[in-house]
Amino acid sequence: MNFDASPRVPIFAVPHVHPSENATEIAKRTKLIDSMRSAQNVRLWSLYLPEDCVNTMIKMGWDRTA
Length: 66
Hints:
single chain, elongated
């Protein structure tokens, strides 16, 4: 029995890019969105976690991946 082990990406997970956008514009927008998400994560964590815990989470990159 053979199984296809190739990864599957749902169609809704594929970003839709307008033809007029170039790679630089997309990268800038992605960086801005990542920064906004990071800031929001840190704000939320700061409400209920000690500062040293939040700082450790940031050092580990969790603010960008959570």
